[in-house]
Amino acid sequence: MSTFEPITLSDGTVVPGIGYGLGTANFNNDTAELVELVKTAVKVGYRHLDGAEAYNNETSLGKAIAACGVPREELFVTTKSGPGLKDIPKSFEQSLEKLGLDHVDLYLIHWPYDFPKPGYPTIQEAWKHMEAIKDSGRAKSIGVSNFRVRDLEKILNMSDLKHKPTVNQIEFHPFMYKAGEELYQYLKKHDIKIAAYGPTTPLTRFANDGFSAAFEKARKGVASRGKADKVEPGQVLLRLAAQRGAIVVTTSGKEYRMKEQLAAGALSELSREEMEELVEAAKPEPQRAFMKHMDDDKTEY
Ligand SMILES: NC(=O)c1ccc[n+]([C@@H]2O[C@H](COP(=O)([O-])OP(=O)(O)OC[C@H]3O[C@@H](n4cnc5c(N)ncnc54)[C@H](O)[C@@H]3O)[C@@H](O)[C@H]2O)c1
Ligand SMILES: OCCc1c[nH]c2ccccc12
């Protein structure tokens, strides 16, 4: 069972420290198999489910929530607006309808880069819609995803700001840490929690090159201090994201992997030295699997 610590957001909402995502592992679109997979994720212990309008599978997520046997109030359900950002109230209504829910726990703007387009609201207008949704009680908490500092500033500098974003869901792993430092400091200063997606990217999406030695050292360190016979590489990366204070969002289509992910929370901790060595071993430039606009420091949305 998982011991990823729950994280309390600035509005008091409590989020399970690890979430199961429906956006990767070929999950796009509704299928009966996906309903079963999400039920399996809940059966093995996941209580936090990360969906999105863009994943085209909110209906399957809703069916799994209804059929999983765990009461709604024990689940933490996130969804995100996008591509429907032109009309956030409508996008939200459609999401609730598909999910078959009267509220979600966390509602996010999936990306900021649509906002300068004709017919779209500004970031500030979009945020007013998000605030109204929170005030209606149909989203317990509201936040953003893939927002740079300059995008967040547009919200935090609003003269009529009522609710600030509680979360920025971003790609977060050692191959991002150096490039992301300014953003992380900004988020910390404003008590906006990081939800870390792609946490296993150094293992699953890019060649390890110079990173492997530090990684194996950290893995052996965790194993030698704990009771676990074996520490899986992915588990080290999930621990790392959690120890850096993030809500971890991962996924898998395999039950044994889901269990392994949750069990990472019960392993012994990475030492400060191991964590620093992992960051130092990674290249300074970002190796990003998603959302390349995050590295563009010129374009205004
Ligand atoms: N907001 C966004 O823009 C955004 C972007 C990407 C992902 N997400 C969310 O985050 C969730 C998780 O993202 P992710 O998939 O990048 O997380 P992740 O880095 O944990 O990768 C999980 C994938 O890697 C595979 N995997 C995990 N450990 C492995 C191992 N040891 N060996 C081989 N394969 C392994 C899994 O089976 C799965 O396919 C998504 O499903 C989605 O909900 C959000
Ligand atoms: O959440 C970001 C990753 C992702 C998975 N499926 C998508 C479809 C549209 C936009 C982004 C995504």
Classify the secondary structure makeup into a structural class.
Answer: alpha/beta
Most strands sheet = 8 strands, parallel, barrel
Question: Reading side by side through the largest sheet, how are the strands ordered?
Answer: 3-4-5-6-7-8-9-10
Strand fraction equals 5-15%
Order of helices and strands: EEEHEHEHEHEHEHEHHHEHH
> Tell me, what's the shape?
globular
Classify the helix fraction into a percent range.
Answer: 25-40%
Rg measurement, Å: 19 Å
CATH architecture of the domain at 12-171: Alpha-Beta Barrel
The hetero compounds bound to this protein are:
nicotinamide-adenine-dinucleotide, 2-(1H-indol-3-yl)ethanol
What is the average per-residue confidence, as pLDDT, rounded to a whole number?
Answer: 95
Number of strand segments: 10
How many individual helices?
A: 11
Given this structure, which CATH class of the domain at 12-171 is correct? Alpha Beta
CATH superfamily assignment of the domain at 12-171? Answer: NADP-dependent oxidoreductase domain
* CATH topology descriptor of the domain at 12-171: TIM Barrel
Query: Kindly, what is the distance between the CA atoms of the first and last residues, rounded to a whole number of angstroms?
Result: 42 Å
Any low-confidence stretches, pLDDT <50, length ≥5?
none
